[in-house]
Amino acid sequence: MLDELKVFTGNAHPGLAQGICDYLGIPLGKAKVTQFSNENIFVRLLEHVRERDVFVVQSICSPVNTSLMELLIMLDAVKRASAGRVTAVIPYYAYGRTDKKDQPRVPITARLIADLLTAAGANRVLTIDLHAGQIQGFFSIPVDELTALYVLSRYFKEKDLQDLVVVATDIGISKRARDLAEMLDAPLAIIEKRRVGDNDKAETLNVIGDVKARRVLLVDDEVDTAGSLVGAVRTLLKRGAVEVYSCCTHPVLSGPAIRRLAASKVKEVVVTDTIPVTGRKKLDKITVLSLAPALGEAIRRINTGQSMGEMFKGH
After folding, report:
1. Which range scores top for mean pLDDT: 167-171, 228-232, 267-271, 277-281?
2. Can you point out the beta strands (E) in the chain?
3. Angstrom distance (rounded) from CA 19 to CA 13
């Protein structure tokens, strides 16, 4: 069925979409995705998709709202062009932190985006490491959620770091950190922190577990302003850690993140390419691993009706 498969992309991360197509051995679909001077977005598919199995690849990354609107309009264009099935491939799902009402009179934006994607024409969603697992349940269509843990664990296995301990940057990420610790056959520790207000500031409180004279691998799902990461590195070094490495799936790296990482004593920050790491974000201590093969294989399995779970056997 691969000859019936089409992959299109918006402007958020064309490099990743091309990597997916390279894995699949197919050309990237041709589409015009532009913005008029009045900031209205225009989309036109430059090849037919009638009754085809179409995948639209678009991370909802900076500029977030433009990327989101491009994705919605592309889905609508594909649906109106009579595609047989439309899958939104969203490596990074923005607004994932707004997944519940944790204070009065606030929205649940992650649910709103799920509704928008469905209304725009998505028949299914393929994504990677959602901030909160329950976001899958916000959709009334199938959602396949991949994880970057296998790619990250393979990288650190090859580094063969001695006396390693995996540390969760907060209690919320502890399950993912525990899974990575198991893959690396390392003990787990957790940083207990309390976020102060809603201004991206966090206060690091305590380390649950022993890190003295150990190499530490900090785990999180994303690095945004890097405030939590840098604070955690400081705390761990004070507690006697020899070296601190960090890994995450989504390198958001907004605001002061790059400046903070450059000044930090973190040894290496290992991320994936769910979000492009380009321009000033390219630091020597940032290593980018590609998830294009994993996404390509997932797309191939969706297209041919094979099990997604089989992808991870033997890891």
Report:
1. 267-271
2. 5-9, 31-35, 41-45, 53-57, 85-90, 124-128, 143-146, 164-168, 188-196, 201-208, 215-223, 243-251, 268-272, 286-289
3. 10
Report helix, strand or coil for 180: helix
Spatial CA neighbour of 143 closest among 185, 175, 110: 110
pTM: 0.94
**Is the sign of the CA dihedral 194, 196, 197, 201 positive or negative?**
negative
Q: pLDDT tens digits, residue range 93-129?
A: 999 999 999 899 999 999 999 999 999 999 999 999 9
> Which of 100, 149, 127 minimizes the C-alpha distance to 270?
149
| Listed residue (279, 256, 173, 282) closest to 217, CA to CA | 173
Give the model's pLDDT for residue 199. Answer: 56
Token pair 């299109």 in the structure block, residue: 8
Domains delineated in the chain: 2-147+292-312 (3.40.50.2020), 149-289 (3.40.50.2020)
What residues are annotated to the active site? 193
